[in-house]
Specification:
Elements: E1 5-11, H1 15-26, E2 33-39, H2 45-54, E3 62-66, H3 73-83, E4 88-91, E5 97-98, H4 102-112, E6 116-121, E7 124-126, E8 132-135, E9 150-151, H5 153-163, E10 175-177, E11 187-188, E12 191-192, H6 197-206, E13 210-214, E14 219-222, H7 232-251, H8 258-282, H9 288-303, H10 309-338
Parallel strand pairs: 1-2, 1-4, 2-3, 6-13, 7-14
Antiparallel strand pairs: 4-10, 5-14, 6-10, 7-8, 9-13, 11-12
Helix pairs in contact: 1-2, 5-6, 5-8, 7-8, 7-9, 8-9, 8-10, 9-10
Amino acid sequence: MTPLVSILLPTFDRPQFLEQALVSALNQTYPHIEIIICDNSQNDATEQVVNSYLTSPSGSKIRYVRNNTNIGPTANQQKCFRLAKGEYINYLMDDDLFHPRKIELMLPYLMDNPKIGLVTSLKQLINHFGEPIRISNAPPFKLSTIKKPAMRGQTLIQSMLTDTKNYIGEPTTVLFRKADLLEPFGTFGGKQAHNNVDVASWIALLVKKDAVFLQEPLSSFRKHPTQLTNTLLSRMGCQCDWIDATLLAKKQQIFDDSSTFVKIVNRLGKTVMDNFPKWNEATNSLYLDELLERVRQLAVASEKTKKLSSLAKDLKKLTLQLEKSKKTSILISETCDAI
């Protein structure tokens, strides 16, 4: 049996990188694939690249959709997912590459064991020109072995939340079963992530299932100047997402013991206390409501745990400080409007 695998390729104004990604998808040794390309681009360059492959012998595997307007990266990823007809899903970001045997090597783990929620691997880091830099660092836990391929999903979730690191990898690295993702891509517990879109879905997939983490790098992650992961807004979004994921994981009883939750919330709380006031000032209170929501949520969670009582008091003080800042911003805005 050769089930259909959908390779989802959301793209935006990167025709040169997109072509390289598309070729790596077409070169898969596993034959039964479809490639869904959803294009957010502002010009026709990407469409021209794709059209040149539609008439090739493998062109029937490609489905190209040009969006009328730029619907944003997350909505574009979700659109790809809705259009997919395959039983299995692997995203391919438009600046990344697949190893030729990626699908062939990963798929059997999912086909042989319904308890596996996703398969991932180490990755090759490449530069702007596609030249290899190094293999990604191994995570702080043992990778899958032939004798013991499955890794407990909830343990991986706790490891990511404890260290606020995406150990599973970017969307390109992961193969999963479409039917297992019950919420839109980038959503966990009904909450849409701002930045950690992939992490939200990895957690959702692993709440009740296990993972396989292969040592062989089966994808390439491109590092280049146009990536936005180091901007202030990205850091703010990431921190909000880690807070959301932690509190939602607590609701779903993912933590093995209360000490793990206390450790994570203490760490998140310190980051909030150290950064939220200056982030709010740097962005002229444009995202104050988002920051305030997370401070309040952390304060409530801390109040319920004796070991976090000191943090709860600090967070309450920060809440009052940010609320005062909000009132001041509103007053200034109303005064300007009156003038």
